[in-house]
Model the fold of this input.
Amino acid sequence: MPRRRRCRRVASQPRFTYFKPIGIRAMDLEEVELGMDEFEAIRLKDYLGLEQNEAAFEMGVSQPTFHRIIDEAHRKVAKALIDGLLLRMSREDQVVIVEKESYRIFECFDCESRWSVDYGIPKPMKCPNCGSTLLARVKED
Ligand SMILES: [Zn+2]
Done:
């Protein structure tokens, strides 16, 4: 099966390379590889709790693309858990590693104030300065 070339932003390399069921030698296990973009999708949406549109924004992909990536990631992780596979984290060099801040910045269209919100905290509904609901995420690129 030919592999598509990928160029997607991920914030960090996985810290762990393999997960396997205990008591079975790795060489006796079927292996499934989680792509770095799939790992990143899980990290952003499932681990940090970002909304899908925020997670897609972080990775620099469209929402439909993000949806495909995380669907495939969930399918692989589920198969590894249920069937007892060796789950290997890919370290592809096609992806762009970006140093990410631990917060994102929002801007108010009414009073033009800007403020930061840590990841894991939901995106704000109102401007903390004037109470306006006309807010936008500021692109840092
Ligand atoms: Zn405001």
Observations:
- The longest strand covers residues 103-108.
- The pocket of zinc ion is lined by residues 108, 110-111, 113, 127, 129-130, 132 (CB under 6 Å).
- The chain has two domains: 9-97, 103-137.
